[in-house]
Amino acid sequence: MKKLLIAAHGSRISSSNDELQVLVEKVSDNLGVAFDGVEVAFLEFASPSIEIVLVDFFNSQTTEVVVLPYFLSAGAHVMNDIPREIQKALDQWPDKKITVLPHIGALDTMAGVIVEACNR
Amino acid sequence: MKKLLIAAHGSRISSSNDELQVLVEKVSDNLGVAFDGVEVAFLEFASPSIEIVLVDFFNSQTTEVVVLPYFLSAGAHVMNDIPREIQKALDQWPDKKITVLPHIGALDTMAGVIVEACNR
Question: Residue A43 in 3-state DSSP?
Answer without folding.
Answer: coil
